[in-house]
Amino acid sequence: MTASTVIAVCAVVIAGASLVVSVYEARAMRKHNRYSVRPLLELSMSFKAGDTAGLILGNYGLGPAAVTTSSLSFDGKLLGEFNESGVNEVRAVLSVRPSAVTLGGHPFLDTGYKRFLLSVQPYDPDQHREFYELIRHRLRVEIQYDSIYGGERFKVVHSPDPLS
Question: In terms of C-beta distances under 8 Å and separation of at least 24 residues, what long-range contacts does 2-8 make, across chains too?
Answer without folding.
Answer: none
